[in-house]
Write a structure and sequence with these properties.
alpha/beta; Rossmann fold; Alpha-Beta Plaits; 2 domains; 8-stranded mixed beta sheet; 4-stranded antiparallel beta sheet
Length: 270
């Protein structure tokens, strides 16, 4: 896989295994950086009207369609605004299924729901503010954001120290695009959650699109399911920006340029 962006014919070719028999196919999407552009203030993100329209059509056409996000599942559902979709939140730590009022935590999380929050409560807020770091409480996960910080090297140095402290305290840390997540030390990620969701649906082909390192976990999970005979085909698309890690691009079947370029893939699926 190279960083060359996909042509219309390549997009049609890669999506064909899904569109030929949508009743046996599933389609899943990351949210920020894939369906919606990355912005400095994550709380202000919005899915463009055309993207939402296509997602609605896809949700009616395929056996199962979902959003797999680093956000809380309820927050992802609010932003996307479609009831028929499944929402896997907090990188797999919770799931909000169609017809349900609240998200269900991953079973592996039992008893560890508050450990990241307890650690974050002990951080020096003045120190965070001075470095341009913002805390986001996502329940089981706490995220530190530094996009837009006035002094990026200082912010990243502070993040390195906090990550080391968190690891020493028994947490897992995970880095994304200008975000550090503090997580309970349990075996949960986007790929594990995606595999569990697909397994319940019984589809033969599954599509996933994403832009960040956590999405590579989903790519790998789908590839493993094919190797094990649990899926007939996996289709993985990288939605590329300046900060997209190389492993995401290299492990995808094709690459498109940002959420705007990804609209062409949605059109092919719809």
């Amino acid at each position: 896989m190279t960083s060359t962006f996909a042509s219309p014919s390549e997009i049609l070719g890669v999506t064909a295994p899904l569109t030929v028999d949508p009743a046996r196919a599933g389609a899943f999407f990351d949210l920020d950086g894939t369906l919606a552009p990355i912005i400095d203030r994550p709380e202000q993100v919005a899915v463009p009207w055309r993207t939402r329209e296509l997602l609605a059509r896809i949700g009616e056409r395929y056996a199962i369609v979902g959003i797999v996000s680093g956000r809380r599942a309820a927050d992802a559902k609010r932003i996307v605004g479609l009831e028929r979709l499944s929402y896997v939140g907090n990188h797999g730590f919770e799931a909000l299924l169609p017809g349900r009022d609240r998200a269900e935590p991953a079973p592996a999380l039992a008893g560890l729901e508050g450990v990241a929050g307890t650690f974050a409560a002990g951080l020096d807020r003045e120190r965070l503010d001075s470095c341009g770091l913002r805390l986001e409480d996502k329940g089981a996960i706490v995220a530190l954001h530094w996009r837009g910080a006035a002094d990026l090297p200082a912010a990243e140095s502070a993040v390195d120290l906090i990550a080391a402290e968190a690891e020493a305290a028994g947490l897992n840390t995970h880095r994304g695009r200008m975000v550090l997540e503090l997580r309970p030390r349990v075996d949960v990620d986007k790929g594990i959650a995606l595999a569990a969701t697909i397994g319940q649906a019984g589809v033969g082909v599954c599509f996933y699109a994403g832009d960040d390192r956590t999405d590579a976990d989903a790519f790998r999970a789908l590839r493993r399911m094919v190797d094990l005979g649990e899926l007939e085909r996996a289709v993985c698309v990288a939605v590329v920006a300046d900060e997209t890690p190389a492993e995401v691009i290299e492990s995808a079947d094709l690459a498109v340029e940002g959420p705007e370029g990804f609209v062409a893939v949605l059109e092919a699926l719809a």
